[in-house]
Amino acid sequence: MARVIAFVSGKGGVGKTTTAVNVAQALFDSKKKVLLVDANVTTPNVSLHYSINPGGFSLHEVLNGKIGIEQVIYKTETGLLVIPGGLNFDNLKTKIKKSLASMLLSLMDKFDYIIIDAGAGLGMETQMAIRACEEVVLVTNPELPAITDALRAKKLAEDLRVNLLGVVLNKKTGLDFDLKDQNIADFLELPIIGDIPFDINVSKSIKERIPVVTAYPLSKAAKAIKKLVNIITKEELYIQDKPDNAFFKWIKKSLGLNQ
Ligand SMILES: Nc1ncnc2c1ncn2[C@@H]1O[C@H](COP(=O)(O)OP(=O)(O)O)[C@@H](O)[C@H]1O
Ligand SMILES: [Mg+2]
C-alpha cells in the first residue's frame, strides 16, 4: 500500500512544488515505486519541472470524469512517473466532478509512495489534496507571513484528520533575519524535518527542467532534500514541547487559533 503524502503550505512561492518534485525524485532514485501528482488544478506546474508535454491529457480530464487516471501517468526523462495538472487556461471554467481521493484508490497497491503537490491557499484545491492523503508535510520559509499561513494550513490538516509529519523550512539564508528553527517549531508545534537552504542551483535546475537532486546532486539543496527523504522514510519524527513565546501567542490569538 502506498504512503500518500501531500506537501502543503498555505502561502504560495515557498517551495512546495520544488520540494515535492525533488522528494519524489529522490525516493524514486532510492528504488522506491513513486508517483508524483500535481494537484494544482488552477495553477499547475509540476510538468514544467520536467520536459513532459503538457498539451496532453492531465489530472483535469480525470477529475472531470472524461478519462481514467491510468491514462494520465507520464514517464519523465528520469523515469519517475508523474500525473501533471492541465496547463490549459480553459480548465478554470470546467467543474470538477470526481474526488482525487477516489481516483487514487486504484493506484494505491501499485506504488510505495504517492507524493501530492498541493495548490497555494487553503481553498477547495488544497482541501482536495489533503483529503486524498494520509500524511501532510508543511512547507514554509523562515519568515512570519509564511509561518503564519503554515499555521492555518496545519489547522486545516488537523480538521481533516490527517497525520502531520512536520515542517520543511525552505529557502533558508542562514542570515540573522531568518526566524530561528526552534521558534518556528514552537510556533507551529511541529518538528522541523527539513532545512533546505536558499540555493541558486534550484533555479538552475528548474531552467534545465531536471530536479536539483538529479542535476546537482552535490548541491546544498540536493543534500538537504535527501536528508529530508531519509527522515520521511524512516519516520524519525519526534514530539515537540508546547511554545511559550509571547509574540507567537499573540499571533495565534489574532488568528483565533489559541488553545
Ligand atoms: N531552496 C531554494 N533555493 C532557491 N530558490 C528556490 C528554492 N526553493 C524554491 N525556489 C524558487 O522559489 C520559487 C517558488 O518555488 P515553488 O516550488 O514553485 O513554490 P510553491 O510551489 O510553494 O509556489 C521558484 O522560482 C523556485 O525556483
Ligand atoms: Mg507550486
List keywords for this structure.
259 residues; 17% strand; eight-stranded mixed sheet; globular; alpha/beta; 36% helix; Rossmann fold; binds magnesium ion
Care to describe what's here?
α6 (181-188) links the parallel β7 and β8 (192-197). The N and C termini lie far apart (36 Å). The protein is 36% helix and 17% strand. The protein has a single domain, classed as 3-Layer(aba) Sandwich (Rossmann fold), CATH 3.40.50. The protein has an eight-stranded mixed β-sheet with strand order 3-4-2-5-1-6-7-8, sandwiched between helices. With 259 residues, it is an alpha/beta fold. It has helices at 16-29, 59-63, 100-105, 124-131, 144-159, 181-188, 200-208, 212-215, 220-234, 246-254; strands at 3-8, 34-38, 74-75, 81-83, 113-117, 135-140, 163-172, 192-197. The model is unreliable at 236-242 (pLDDT under 50). It contains ten helices and eight strands. Bound molecules: adenosine-5'-diphosphate (ADP) and magnesium ion (MG). Residues 9, 12-18, 120, 170-171, 196, 198-199, 202-203, 206, 221 line the site of adenosine-5'-diphosphate. Magnesium ion binds next to α1.
